[in-house]
Design goal:
The structure is a homotrimer. By secondary structure, chain A is an alpha/beta fold. Chain A folds into 2 domains: 346 residues, Metal-dependent hydrolases (TIM Barrel), CATH 3.20.20.140; 94 residues, uronate isomerase, domain 2, chain A. The first copy, chain A, contains 20 helices and 7 strands. Chain A has a 4-stranded parallel beta sheet, covered by helices on one side. In chain A, strands 1-2-3 form a 3-stranded parallel beta sheet. In chain A, α9 links the parallel β2 and β3. In chain A, α12 runs parallel beside α14. Chains in contact: A-B, A-C, B-C. At the A-B interface, α16, α17, α18, α19 and α20 of A face α4, α6 and α18 of B.
Chain lengths: 455, 455, 455
């Protein structure tokens, strides 16, 4: 089989028949980190490094593993030098999805067929940059080429969402939606939280004297987002907060933190738990989806954190986390009235989350293989397992989770191929007939998420 | 390959050759939840919902995931209405083993070949019910059709086992055996424990003044079960109790609980640990198998628990459990003199349990992929892994774990096909010759469990 | 496919093409438990039991599982009786890698093609022993046949390494290198530690009054090993020590232990943490690799431990271990200046370790599937997963970890075949072109480890 060819990732005729039923469906991407400003501005990309690697810590981490110096990754070298350095080690990245993604981006969307390597770096630099200069490679045109029907970026509650409005105005329909992500407000013990509170107060013209004031501001933001096409919130936590906390403990912690004092772990927990339950109740009222990204231990590599800050690498998963205790309270409190998506980072947590999803009925769903699991083997193992324990038709759907626009194409293609292959194997094995498997694939790839997220 | 056809779940010629060596072997099912009364009464089943779904929370959970209202699951709707509702969503359950099991039941034992779906619900209702009305579809005839040689139901120590005797009398040999499951006596902190103690006292005509009295009653029950063809006990625990507890602490807890007082965690633990070790020693004396079902966290969904009680759904697994600490004491205490089967619920615990099995020699064995792992991918992954760490020939054998009589056929067929496929792959890979693999398959599917359980 | 035939473990043409690119590369084995005395003495092996089983607790554990009496395993029976007993149950070991390894040893290196079984035990005893008597079956000749270019045994800091020197002198080049394994010095609470301290004092002619004296002795040993071709240390721990300990706490514990007093857990931890960090800094200075074997819980079966002591069986893995807390400190402290190999025992820890490897850049690498994971399915699952999360080209390489000389051949063959199969599948799936996959295979099988370990 040829590299990224027609049968890429698909091992049987049944798999191809299923893939053919889904490959041209529009893209629904309910969670990504789109640069909406870039879409609204709709300017051509300057060069292939900017588009492929400049904002992508997935790429950065693999380059570091191959000994590339930081000045060629996040440092001061030119885009061209960085690209050539990337090309020089790129064949050594085989196995990591970055190798497939960048080649998919090149082949499928820029029409460049060369393998990235030390001998082709310059050539690709020329050809890809030339391709990027064409009008059809501007962000809005690319979204059309990729077939994006709806996508949800990730946004801060104080964001005015003006770029979303502008992008949709230019495009002529509601393509780009925001997602409400109040992590900054909840992370009461993080550096910068007080400064952020000041901004919240300004944004909503409210004095923050108590936790109830903050909840009121959040409510205003939540309403504002709803009026601006938002259908979901998103939350990143190592483990879910314990929502049995009461308002007076939360308020005490809030007031103490506002004064700049250091909180004790139980004070932090009380605030977070109370806050978390409150905003979940907002979602329940509006029938928004509550997206929960569980398990990421961030910034464990001090040398990166100290020089580059967050979202630059050094993030890991950890099996040794107690997710059940807090989730049990949370899922019971909102049972039957809150749509929840559970995203799993450590594969060892998948059985807990899948059986919780199974236990809590229609509204609780498993999200796609996330981040460090977002590759063919991670997606395959997840789909095989959750199908057997949970119900595949309830899958919350693929999300790109990406900062990079072309990922809405290449990551979805990878997912749809793996999905087709897994379901095709079920047909091969005589576990289900082909026709309802094709129908299931359409549900999982398009209809299901569209309905669940109200898109 | 056709749905559930000749090659169902088997991918190679070697796999088929292995399957042919085991497919017609009698069924040994050392752990199920048979309704023995139903077997003794030997009446035709009223309808296909009663047989397939009315007692099966595996089915219930999948229907809930697809948004079926509870009145069509455990509620007051008629069997016909419930069946038609099930049929209306059934194609959406593809991937979950329920989809395969019910079709296997229909095709293999009722001769109904239609796919269950919204357009065939009525037709199947008619055809399957007509099939069920035939004399050859009565419980005892079905057991013969399925080829059950021996099976062990799950019974309470105060049970008189009269239905077991009656069923065997009618069948003309010892087909149905009881399993001694004293969980109710051990769960000292559960609602209803005191009432249960009253029943124990009555059953064995004994006054329960101390924990030793209870142990004496348990001993009488254990002897009674032994005289009634029992060969094994069964125990369901989140984690095994700590058996280092002493009799005086256990007795203090017992007396306090008898008075209706609430026990502290350490008091509960002392009682359970002492009780557990005592009954294990009974098994050791009689060479019974001690079956240990580890890891199930039950009834986490309050809304189900409050309305429907136990065994109605809402059960999960959890990676974050310390199984080693208590098992180390337990397995050492009874090393070399107690036959133990370890059933694993969370796949993440499999390596610990498999290496413990490896470490503790011939008498400690791994049970088949249990409950939330009882599906083709769960069985496959378990067999692949435990074969490599432990020794496949020591596998404790498949059990249906089912309340449903037809499951003794369909679940065993699924297992034997997966087993044949896994071993066939070893032949394909040149890891072992075909002939000893066929022999190993016979050991795993029949000879081994028969010998280990003394059946 | 024939048993252990040309295509053994390899399922596709691409896999064979990759295997052909690596099968004849020299063996680099940076971690084993070679009996260097045996190599230096270079005498013929007395018999096949001695070579295959007498020192191998992998074999012992499988025999115990099949009910073989200990007198035929580690007891007083003759080698011949032991071998015949092994043969009588050997077909029952199918699935366990021991079945494949022993047949590989026989076929590939002794030219004996019979299947081991009850009917062939005597025949193989005769033929294999005759083969072993030939000059070409002496240790040094076998190392040449196998193609070992470099190997690292595991040695105690007080070892004089005279046999290494003698073996290399005879061979005419530096083939056998030592590895510095100071576990005995670190295990301050283990029986025999004080006696061991006496030996350390004698060996380095130093009085041990404080922990600094011990560190000084270790430094002398480290230097001595370096002068004798050592390139790596090795450390076996359940979880890594907490290196935040300070010197005064470590010293207090050291002095207390020297007096024969029992240490508290915090005192043990302080000593171990300080010691661990100190020796890691030695490695950093010399650019040695720091090999960390994580997670083994040893000697859990009391009956074995009490009669046979360490390394006789009864060792397990356990999911419920917190590896992140101590590793976070350790990897940050030595970030960028220490080459580390992480060996994972419980498959559930692999995601943590793989993402840590990903996070900490070029110098931190994952070791090959270790011990209870060292079999085709363990290697396959590890390679599939770490490729997707980490970078395959950074793999630390296969090690035999074996006491048995033929394992340097048979275990490496198994690894190379699995590697070829996994990478071949990537070619089949269109995930990468064949040619760079062949190149990657060469890097993973030979070039990479050679460079990383400075061999």
């Amino acid at each position: 089989m040829s590299f990224l060819g027609k049968n890429y990732l698909i091992r049987s005729h049944n798999g191809m028949k299923i893939f053919n039923a889904i490959k041209d469906l529009p893209i629904i991407d309910p969670h990504n980190h789109a640069n909406v400003k870039e879409i609204a501005a709709n300017r051509n990309y300057s060069d292939v490094w900017q588009l492929f690697a400049a904002t992508d810590h997935y790429v950065w981490e693999t380059l570091r593993k191959r000994g590339v110096d930081e000045e060629y990754i996040t440092g001061n070298k030119s885009s061209r030098d960085k690209w050539l350095k990337l090309a020089s080690v790129f064949p050594e990245l085989i196995g990591n999805p970055v190798y497939e993604w960048l080649h998919l981006d090149l082949q499928r969307y820029l029409g460049v067929k060369h393998l990235i390597g030390p001998d082709t770096g310059e050539l690709i630099w020329e050809e890809a940059n030339a391709a990027l200069a064409a009008p059809k490679r501007r962000p809005q045109a690319l979204l059309k080429t990729i077939g994006v029907e709806a996508m949800c970026s990730t946004d801060d509650p104080i964001d005015l969402l003006e770029e979303h409005a502008e992008a949709n105005r230019q495009i002529g329909r509601t393509l780009v939606r925001p997602t409400w992500r109040p992590d900054k407000a909840m992370n009461i013990s993080a550096p910068g939280w007080r400064e952020y509170m000041t901004k919240v107060a300004e944004r909503f013209n409210i004095t923050l004297n108590s936790v109830s004031d903050l909840i009121r501001a959040m409510r205003m933001s939540h309403d504002y987002f709803a009026a601006n096409n938002c259908v979901a919130s998103d939350h990143g936590v190592e483990v879910a907060p314990d929502i049995t906390a009461n308002v007076s403990d939360a308020d005490a912690g809030f007031k103490k933190a506002l004064k700049g004092k250091v909180l004790q772990p139980n004070e932090i927990a009380a605030f977070k738990g109370y806050f978390f339950a409150k905003i979940a109740s907002f979602n329940a009222e509006k029938d928004w989806v509550f997206q929960l990204h569980l398990g990421a231990v961030r910034d464990v590599r001090d040398s990166l954190w100290e020089t580059l800050g967050a979202d630059s690498g050094g993030d890991i998963c950890d099996h040794f986390q107690d997710h059940l205790s807090p989730l049990k309270y949370f899922l019971n409190r909102f049972d039957g009235r809150l749509k929840v998506v559970l995203y799993c980072l450590d594969p060892g947590h998948q059985p807990l989350l899948a059986t919780l999803s199974r236990a809590f009925g229609e509204k609780v769903r498993l999200g796609s293989a996330w981040w460090l699991c977002d590759h063919p083997i991670g997606m395959r193992r997840q789909l095989e397992y959750i199908g057997a324990v949970d119900v595949l038709a309830n899958f919350a759907g693929m999300v790109s989770d990406s900062r990079k626009l072309l990922s809405y194409g290449s990551r979805f293609e990878m997912f749809r191929r793996v999905l087709a292959d897994v379901l095709g194997e079920m047909a091969d094995n005589g576990q289900a007939p082909l026709s309802p498997l094709q129908d299931l694939a359409i549900t999982m790839a398009y209809r299901g998420p569209k309905r669940f997220f109200n898109l």
